[in-house]
Specification:
Blueprint (H helix, E strand, L loop, with lengths): L14 E3 L4 H9 L7 E9 L1 H13 L7 H15 L5 E4 L2 E5 L4 E6 L8 E6 L7 H15 L8 H10 L3 H17 L4 H4 L8 E5 L20 E14 L5 E14 L5 H16 L18
Parallel strand pairs: 5-7, 7-8
Antiparallel strand pairs: 1-4, 2-9, 3-4, 5-6, 8-9
Length: 295
């Protein structure tokens, strides 16, 4: 990524300003809110080979239990690495590209109705592989679940904010949104906030729910929200017309259409499917291209 790029006038702390075609640039003014620019994508991903790969890998090295969700997180990091327009965002009627790839998701402290949720934010290194990302996620989740209440970071900040009187909260939110527009919010507010992640994921399959469409937020810079449903079997017809029962996962994605066009999004989805069909790619560092050729 562009982490070593020198900051110039007009850049933000979390991204640098980029030039885009006229239509995209004008769209930032015609549709200034991210929620005005949402497009929804629903698709099925064949994870048969991926599940076989996981079973074999976990048997060979049981030191960390890799899951389907870890694979999806890694696949999305690889996809954003190879498809850099996905790492763009719009704020203040300006198009920016992030210096780093970041992924975020919510962790349930306990599987109970009233259990608290905690936010997790991951910025993988260019050298990261599935094993690195799995160990990071497993370690952080264990640390989060040691307590039923927030122990620090953005969760503790939100708890303190929620304890303020309503009028004070509303006043501070106005200031924060104004600073967000210009990209000058203090680091302690934005650091670890999933609203500033490249991709925000929700593993609904872990609680037995199907994938859904989740809205984007006007606050922050997150342009891609992905939900993952339960694994189920489904009969698929191949190119030769033969039907075969495969392991399938439904995904729902909400995207900010101002960061790229539909053709770019469609090709990016093909790359995700290619990685899931060839899971050995997850063992390569993120900086190493997958070699996928778009037809």
């Amino acid at each position: 990524m562009a982490s070593g790029r020198k900051r110039r006038f007009g850049d933000r702390r979390d991204g640098f300003r980029v030039k885009a075609p006229g239509l995209q640039t004008v769209m930032t003014c015609l549709m200034p809110k991210r929620t005005d620019s949402e497009v929804f994508v629903s698709d099925k991903i064949d994870v048969t080979e991926l599940l076989r790969y996981l079973e074999q890998k976990n048997e060979q090295d049981p030191s960390v239990r890799r899951t389907l969700f870890h694979c999806v997180v890694t696949a999305m990091a690889r996809t954003v690495r190879e498809r850099p327009l996905l790492n763009r965002f719009i704020q203040g009627a300006t198009i920016y590209e992030r210096y780093e790839i970041s992924l975020a998701f919510v962790v349930k402290r306990r599987f109970a109705d009233h259990a608290e949720e905690s936010l997790m934010f991951l910025t993988p290194e260019d050298s990261a592989t599935l094993d690195d990302i799995s160990r990071r996620i497993v370690g952080d989740v264990k640390e989060i679940r040691k307590s039923e209440h927030a122990t620090g970071g953005v969760d503790a900040l939100l708890d303190r904010f929620a304890a303020m009187p309503r009028l004070l909260r509303m006043f501070l939110v106005r200031i924060i949104r104004y600073l967000d527009f210009w990209g000058v919010n203090p680091r302690f507010i934005t650091e670890g906030d999933p609203n500033y992640a490249s991709v925000f994921l929700s593993n609904l399959g872990s609680i037995g729910c199907p994938s859904v469409y989740h809205h984007l937020n006007n606050y922050g810079s997150n342009s891609i929200m992905i939900t993952i449903g339960t694994i189920h079997r489904e009969a698929l017809v191949d190119r030769d017309g033969k039907s075969e029962v495969r392991e399938i996962v439904d995904i729902g994605a909400t995207l900010d259409e101002r960061i790229a066009d539909g053709f770019y999004f469609a090709r990016s989805l093909k790359l995700v499917k290619h990685i899931c069909a060839n899971p050995q790619l997850l063992d390569l560092p993120l900086s190493e291209p997958s070699g996928f050729r778009f037809e």
